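re: ur question from yesterday

yeah so i grabbed the chain u mentioned. its 256 aa long if i counted rite. heres the sequnce exactly as i have it in my notes:
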Amino acid sequence: MSKSYLYINAFFLSLFVFFSSCQNDTYLEPELTPKKYSYIIPNRISFDFSQQSKNSSSIIPYNNGLILRNISDSDISGEFIVLAFNKNEKNYHNLSFIERGDILSLSKNESQADIQMEQTNLLFSDNNVIASILNFNDAISDHKLNGFYKGELNIYNDGNEFLKSLTCTGYIDYQGKFMFFVEDDDEDDIVVLQGNINTGNMISGKILKRDGTNLSPIVNITSDLLNLNGTNLSGKVSITEESNKRILQFNLTHQN
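ran it thru and got these structure tokens back, copy pasting raw so excuse formatting
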């Protein structure tokens, strides 16, 4: 065997060893440790989220799970809601998913089995997740308007002339805290309604624009407060942007 032949074999062998070493140096084991995030309603319930990606080189999407844990001193049951967003501006355009479900009867310190939710490409935080309880199956303490709603917001000018109708989705929780999201892509001003409703159905809240900034406070029209008749939520409020006053008429349907 000639020396030149040996030199050629040695050269290619050294290249093989070199590239194999490089591949071993850059290889990363899959990242299988779940990411954790919890949202707690003090002395009532804990929402414990777990997000897991299949490997470190492809972290999108996350597989999302939820465990509900009773942290109160008594049994609880009811209905929960989770909304996840693709960005920090919480509006319908950025909505990733809505998850609703029943809370089974949970004893003190008991947890409900892992609830599998839709996949997302975001890591959960206080900035992009809303978790709440719609009701605790308590007719005395739950807000009487609690629930998940879909329908329309009809917009009128100050002279009661109809301007437009906006498709709307949202919820009122067990305490009367509410968020309603306008679904229309071409609407940039009246995009989110949020605030609280007291036991007399008086609203304290505001309207947010698409970028999350304030458009106007919500003003009650005391002659036509929010009212739930069967499954229909109706009532009127007013908003004023500079000198532009408008009337918002609720026409929403409670969803089972």
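noticed a couple things. The longest helix spans residues 3-26. also The two ends are 85 Å apart (CA to CA).
anyway ttyl
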